[in-house]
Amino acid sequence: MAIEYLGFLPILILVALAGVQIGLIAYAGQQAGTAARAGARSASLGESAQEGCTQAVSDWLSVDCHSAPGGDEVTVTAVVEIPNFVPGWDFGDATKTATMPLDHTDEESGQP
Question: Which candidate, 39, 34, 40, 31, places its Cα nearest to that of 82?
Fold first, then answer.
């Protein structure tokens, strides 16, 4: 009886590791969306998109943001590297994009 459990243990461990990896994939995707929105908000206010992105994600994740102004709006693409929990499994990066209107305020009065 104990040998049967011992034979099934690697399968249970593999399923548990896959569950954790799927959670990390979902979390990285959510963080990429948050970073893109924060970066677009920062860029629309004339600040650094990369700084806005970096401040919006967890410290243990790496994020790279690119902004592309166009007319009256700015589009920011955030790329978050998906952490590998299981060696040998590579899922690439999570990429999300957000667009925000540029903030047009009157410099002298501070009014829109």
Answer: 31
Of 102, 104, 112, whose CA–CA distance to 42 is shortest? 102
pLDDT tens digit sequence for 60-108: 999 999 999 888 999 999 999 999 988 788 899 999 999 999 986 644 4
Q: What is the mean pLDDT of residues 13-25?
A: 92
Q: Give the right CATH number for 2-101 from 3.90.25, 3.30.1300, 3.40.1350, 3.40.1000.
A: 3.30.1300
Helix (H), strand (E) at residue 83: none
Length of the chain: 112
Give the strand order in the sheet containing 73-81: 63-70, 73-81, 93-101
Quote the pLDDT of residue 5: 76
Distance CA 91, CA 95 (A): 12
Hey, where are the domains in the chain?
2-101
